[in-house]
# Entry
Amino acid sequence: MRPRWKKIFSDLWGNKLRSFLVVASITIGLFAVGMITSMHSILTEDMRTSYSAINPANITISTDNFDDDLLDRVRKVDGVAEADGIRLFSTQVQTDAGEWVLAEITAFRDSNEIVINQPTPTQGQGPVSERQFGVDEYKFGYLGKEIGDNLLLELPSGKQREMPLVSLVHDQTIGASQEGGGYFLSPVQLYTTLDSLPWLEQSESMNRLLVTVDGDSNDPEYIKQISELVIEEVEDSGLTVYTSFVRGSEDHPNSTYIEAIASVLFVLGMLVMFLSAFLITNTLSGLLGQQVNQIGIMKTIGARRGQIVGIYLLLIFAFSMIAFLIAVPLASRIAYGLLEVLAGQVNVVLTGFRVVPLAVFLMFGIALVVPQLAGIYPILHGTRVSVVEALSGISSEQATSREGLVDRWLKSLRGVSRPMLISLRNTFRRKGRLALTLITLTLGGAIFIATFNVQGSLNSYIGRIGKYFLADVNVTLDSYERISEIEAEIKAVPGVKDVEGWAFARGELVMPDGSTGEAVSLLAPPAGSQLVVPMVEEGRWIEPGDQNVITLNERFHEIFPDMQPGDTITFDILGDEHDFQVAGFFQMAGRSSGYLAYTSYEYLSDLIGQPNEANAFRITASRPEISLQEQKALGQEIKRQLEASGYSVTQVEAGQSLTETTTDGLNILTGFLIIMASLIAIVGSIGLTGTLSMNVLERTREIGIMRSIGANNRTLRNLVMVEGLLIGIISWFLGTLLAFPISILLSNAINYALFGATVAFTFTIHGIFIWLVVVLILSVLASVLPARNSARLTIREVLAYE
Amino acid sequence: MAPAAKIDLSCALIQIENVSKTFKTPAGDFPALKDINLCFGQAEYASIMGKSGSGKSTLINMITGIDHPSSGTVRVADHDVHHMNESQLADWRGRNLGIVFQFFQLLPMLSVLENTMLPMDFCNQYAPAERENRARLLLDMVGLGAEANKLPAALSGGQQQLAAIARALANDPPLLVADEPTGNLDSRSSTRILDLFDELVSQNKTVIIVTHDSSLAERASRRVLISDGMLIDETMADALPMLGHPQLLRLSQLAVNRSYEPGAILARHDNGKTGLFVITQGQVEALRIFRSGESEVCERLGPGTYFSELELEQDERSVLAFRAVSDVPVEAQWVSHEAFYHFLGESNAAENALRKAATERFGHIHRQVQPRKSFWWRR
# Structure
């Protein structure tokens, strides 16, 4: 081996702590990029693959009851590959804790031959038979049951029946026929067969048509065209189309949410890599600083600067490759591990662990380029040193340096002990290195604090969304009833203050060219309702006396970017087209919600033929701000009251359940934010460890002299610890300041990704104090090894140091 | 200051011309070298000696190109050293110069064999297959053949310095420069190193060592003295070893070159105002001239010797005179009477040393005489 290559190898192996720091600096950046790329790639690929494997419906039509005849007719429509039907209905089921919760039941024609929207059995007997339930994994835990247990459900007549839970399944189509957060807001999902329905007091007929298209099943325009033909066929059969929904075969219902997470992780991953680059520069500066003497020696024995630069670039390359070899399996494993947690949360089936070529390629490319770029300045700077400076150890800058502001301030300090002054001076001795360390720690701290502010911002936004659902209890009846009667019944329950009857309808947007557009949910509170506090972004809210006036959520701007208050919009409701005048636009949950519109109760109830009647009621408690448990208890009381009076209740829901569910969904995101924040904290601590180690190494002689005049181990350790803590505290202060703009940027990025809208900045103080504790701990930990090394040096070693 | 002695800059290997070096420090500018003129020839074994802070390491750094002069030129083996860029300089240095440092400066992570091979590697000297053999030969030559695969930390100081010398010889440079090569070594190791230098000189290499140790400096065939950034006249230094460097430097500055025809009287007691003479060329005889007119030759003085008016004390019967004899003109560095006594007035130690030397040299001629009365400028 040529001596210069031997030098590279020896430099790598000789100082293990230093090599570890350099490799760790590079690994962390590669790891972040690799992990995020792997996660994104596997998740999107498996999402598409596993979703398309279940033959998901491209077209879902909600219609009147139908039988196999309609299916035969639809199958003959041009462009239709397959058609199937299910019956979908909701009921109340009782959890193990005795609570009644909403469940949605899907009845298949033949569970052994499910052609479209195939649920995947994961436990139990597999396909269900008559009078048996399968249950989806997602909300199975709510029931508190085991597979094999019986589930009590309430029939429309009020009777209760039990059916066994025989199979656990994974249904990837939950939320597929709804926009936005349908999956997260979905109730417990149960599956049975059509022949079970009479026993459940349901019609043994289908009410949902599922269609797949031939040709390009991922082309929305093409699917829409086929959908129009199918709708025509359905209507020609004399049936009413209530809603229709189209979706590509690879368009997973939660893809929006997943893309939002991926984009956030991408931003954070890039930030970690950026920090890592700073860290690499700092660590390599230290490495080169320790090599100055050797650089001088090499120059005296004939090495040209280019040769020396080449040696160190090769050394960096060696470090990079080691980091690459560590980062690839680490990133792949951890990415898949995190995905296994995430996949269940977002209803994706993973196909198995693998190393993602793109991630490897990216990591390799970054390993080749970033460390070299980060190291080029320290290398060029270090190799520029003159031989005389390199061998004497005194730089011309040091020899001619004048006292700066900081140095004069330090000198002016009074009442500070000498050892403390030494620590203070040492901290500011190498201002360039201190600056690099502070940049790393400060940025890291700012991002760390920002993640807490973002979490607060998200929670705040969810809170604002909750203002659309201010009722303590939401009750849905099986049928429309007179509001006055229901109001009287409910008010008889102790603890109830007010009752509002709301109208609700599902409709479809009618496009200017007459084609059918997106499905829309229309909500209609009574005039002057206090149970909605909207975030109006343009125009106005609906007012008492409004007739065919409507306010739309922000999603409508995606379809009609130029639509303004005063324009007209047309919906197909129950088969009839109705024009509405747009009063304004309100901010809801962006792309995480569907297409929502609010209109006046009086107008909508007339429109749907149910004046002075409602099936949805909003109740407020007499005591303000009751807890979720109290809301649930009140809801159960109301349910008992209504059922005792002969009314059939479909659903009773506590008002806070919605925000709780939404918060749960976003916890995944904040969990990832905390993981990235932890990575960032690790980057910072590596940087600090490196800086303190280098500082100790450079002061070997000084430490030896202090020993010779009485400094004991404790004094020396304290010197280093104080230096570390000082740097940590300075970075904390600067990081707190920097956290404000970074929080705003990050918060806007995340909110825009999730909701398609930016939100007001929310500041949470606990992030600042958590980071203070973290950075103090990191500072102490980062100081431990260098402090111990400084205390271990003997005078003899110091004297022999030269 | 007296004009610089005429330097023959046609010396073959190293020519230093009007070199000055000033360091900028927080305390102000520090002139480390002041108008140095010096040269070294091929196969010369020279020492550069001076006290700590005299500028000897700075001077050697000018030769090796490790540092650059503030003014003046340095030519080594026909190369204008300081007109090369750093890369050219490094390459040139690797091929033409071997440097040995006081603290060895071996790369700690490479074995001594690898350290020795490294210069060949950088300068692409010798075919790759030859390099290891050559390195082993060099290590054998310095007596480290058995330690070739050891790391420097496993060797004693002396062994490390020998390894450093082997490395310095890797590319067979014509010039070897050693800065305090034995400064960190015991006497036995020092002797070994110096024997090695003798051997290298016999192989026609030029060896320049920098040292503060006079016993080491005397091993060299030529001694260059430097004090306070200025060169001490070599002949002056050879002639007046009893004086300290500052005094020698002072005399070097005060002296002027004088030439005398054969037979001319350079000085006699009754001439008055004789001063100090250091003979650089020719022969001078010390004459005792009796009152009767007869004379006898007491001593013959050649280049590198001196006499001063302190030797010209007379007795009742004779005076002492110094006469140029050879058939070539006598050249001498002369310090005038006024300057000489000003010099004596500045340093009691110098005066005592010179007087003592005068007594020892010519005391058998004169009776013990009383010291001269002080002139007004004496301390």
